[in-house]
Design a protein that fits this description.
Elements: H1 14-25, H2 28-41, H3 45-69, H4 76-83, H5 86-118, H6 123-142, H7 145-173, H8 195-198, H9 205-208, H10 218-247, H11 259-268, H12 272-304, H13 323-341, H14 347-372, H15 376-393, H16 401-419
Length: 428
């Protein structure tokens, strides 16, 4: 591979792909959202987790199909481009860039907060730890997919075991009468108000799609990675959410900022602080490595297609990693973290907007699926899935204007660049 190559090496095995999927999905969503949702929807919060899990199943079926049959470093944008046009793909790329720029810094900030809580540090400690996590994730990816793939596989097994133990121990040894419990099923609609926010916890598989070009056998391995990771994640999410609602009071100040920390404290007391810090930081670190991997591939693919500067589309010959794109996303994420630290935008706003954006991106994937599949049964499945997406989007707030604006910008800029004669890379 030459220094200026614009093709990614196929190095990912199915085991590494499963590990990558789990660590990409499990992150700040699990560490923060069970508490935020519980605080806002009380006992009905658990239903938002269940409904979102049911909604995401047909979306993941579609992702598995698209990732297996249309593997591209452009991920969702590549799917949309294959189904419609380069301009539609470019619009999706801009939406993804705007979404990653909010969601990934929110992940890092959550990790910094957990670290600060573990060492009894103040706000400054949390900010420093946030930047430290971003640097760590960038460095792991800087050495290439082979290194980060192995690390993700090990971390995935560790996280699944640790989080399963936390949920189980809280339900067995904690005071299950201390919380609000679970609302009667007749009140499940009260959980709809937090569905958009909770959906952020179910995002990540769309990030996995950006790695499809690097699979040794994408047609076989991508669906396996999606299926196994989903089953693992859903068990962990429902277990943690249930434990939070049964053992914690919604008025506990820690519920909104570090519910897993409060969960462990409820049955371990002060001895839990160190364990919480280690668990939270490890989860976020693993999540950030995968997220930054995906984001760098998005920037790489966008540059290769001509939307971003060409310099971002080179692949380093030694690491087989798009290092220039990686450094760029690191700098952007650091800038957003700085804005959050300056109180210009809150962590809750970052999570809220990113969650809604990701759901819209799932909807675009469904549209691409409908355009690309030929069988009538597949199209019917796609239409039903699209109807679900539209219904859920009806619960979103005025923040929906942000992703719609990004789509319009991407579509317009792509048209202007095409008019200027920009040549794009054609995916296989």
């Amino acid at each position: 591979m030459s220094k200026n190559s614009t093709e990614l090496a196929k190095t990912l095995t199915v085991g590494q792909a499963i590990g990558l999927a789990i660590t990409i999905v499990v992150g700040s969503g699990l560490l923060v959202l069970p508490g935020l949702a519980y605080q806002q929807a009380n006992g009905a919060a658990l239903y938002s987790w269940i409904v979102d899990a049911l909604i995401v199943i047909p979306l993941l079926v579609i992702f598995a199909y698209l990732g297996a049959n249309f593997p591209s470093a452009g991920g969702i944008a590549g799917f949309v481009q294959a189904g419609f046009s380069r301009r539609a793909g470019a619009a999706t790329e801009v939406l993804l860039l705007g979404t990653f720029s909010l969601g990934i810094p929110a992940i890092a900030t959550t990790g910094g907060n957990y670290f600060a809580a573990a060492v009894n540090g103040g706000e400054g400690t949390g900010i420093a730890a946030t930047f430290g996590l971003l640097i760590m994730a960038a460095l792991v990816n800087y050495f290439g997919a082979k290194v980060s793939g192995r690390i993700q596989q090990i971390l995935a097994v560790t996280l699944v075991v640790l989080l399963a133990v936390v949920a189980g121990a809280a339900l067995i040894f904690g005071d299950t009468n201390a919380g609000s419990g679970v609302a009667p099923i007749s009140e499940w609609t009260k959980g709809l108000s937090v569905m958009g926010m909770v959906f952020f916890a179910y995002t990540g598989w769309e990030m996995l799609s950006f790695t499809a070009e690097e699979y040794r056998n994408p047609k076989r391995d991508f669906p396996i990675a999606v299926t196994v990771s989903f089953l693992s994640v859903i068990v962990l999410y429902l277990g943690i959410a249930l434990a939070v609602q049964l053992t914690l009071s919604p008025t506990d100040a820690r519920v909104a900022t570090a519910p897993v920390s409060a969960l462990l404290f409820s049955f371990l007391g002060k001895a839990s602080s160190q364990l919480v810090g280690v668990l939270g930081v490890v989860i976020i670190a693993a999540n950030l490595v995968g997220a930054m991997w995906a984001a760098s591939r998005l920037v790489f693919a966008s540059a290769r297609e001509g939307l971003l500067p060409r310099a971002l589309s080179t692949v380093d010959s030694k690491s087989q990693s798009p290092r220039v794109a990686l450094i760029t996303v690191f700098l952007v994420f650091s800038g957003v973290v700085a804005l959050s630290a300056a109180k210009i935008i809150s962590l809750q706003s970052l999570l809220q907007v990113a969650g809604q954006n990701f759901f819209l991106l799932y909807g675009l994937s469904v549209l691409a699926y409908l355009k690309l599949v030929k069988r009538t049964s597949f199209k019917i499945f796609g239409v039903l899935t699209l109807l679900i997406v539209i219904l859920v989007m009806g619960t979103f707030t005025w923040w929906i204007l942000y992703p719609l604006g990004l789509l319009a910008i991407g579509f317009t800029v792509s048209g202007l660049r095409k008019g200027q004669g920009v040549q794009t890379h054609q995916n296989a």
